[in-house]
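Researcher: We're teaching a course module on how sequence relates to structure. For the next exercise, students receive a sequence and then see the predicted structure as tokens, so they can try to spot secondary structure elements on their own. Here is the exercise chain.
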Amino acid sequence: MIPISFVVPYRWLADRAGRLEQTLRQLGELIVTPDEIIVPVMPSNELWCRAAAINKGVAAAINEWVLITSIDLDWTSFDIDDFRSRYLRGDPLITFMHPVPGMPEAEKGGDAMAFRKSSWRRLGGFDEDYKGWGWEDIDWVERCREEGLELIQADIELPHIPHPVYETAPYWVGQLGPFYEWKMSMRAERRRWLENLGLRGQPGM
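Model: And here is the predicted structure for the students to work with:
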């Protein structure tokens, strides 16, 4: 059996505690030792950062395979043994189908994704420049793509549970998209610079 560390980043809000409890109960019914569940807690003020919480959780994971999930997915129909046998091989980034009513396919983020801890370490973790929530997952997928990880969407649907809309950090409203585009352009420029110097692919580069 290939063990999995589930990381459940959680922003402390009183009316969300029930959802966290439900998620932990559902996951608890799936896992067996040495699987584990890690819940890195974010503050409820404007300083919260989902990327930082994910990094904290992955750093604490004892297993090589890590699965990130929000508390807004329904895991009751998830076949963990089937998932282990079909997908946990090689060095991929695995995403899941979790349709959100009214949201275009391209705008669905990474409510759940799985990858190796060694890949997370090699890529430097999630980018904590993205404050609040949103775009840190899209940034991560793009960086995995750039580094040559195989991108796999599992044919497993995890229903999205409706919930009130919670705002991201106030000073990021309307800015995350343009910030992501700027980040991508800077990374592309760095790759071109390294390639011109013949350093692309060298350790630490």
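Model: If you want an answer key for the exercise: Helices lie at 17-28, 50-60, 80-87, 117-123, 136-146, 176-196. The radius of gyration is 17 Å.
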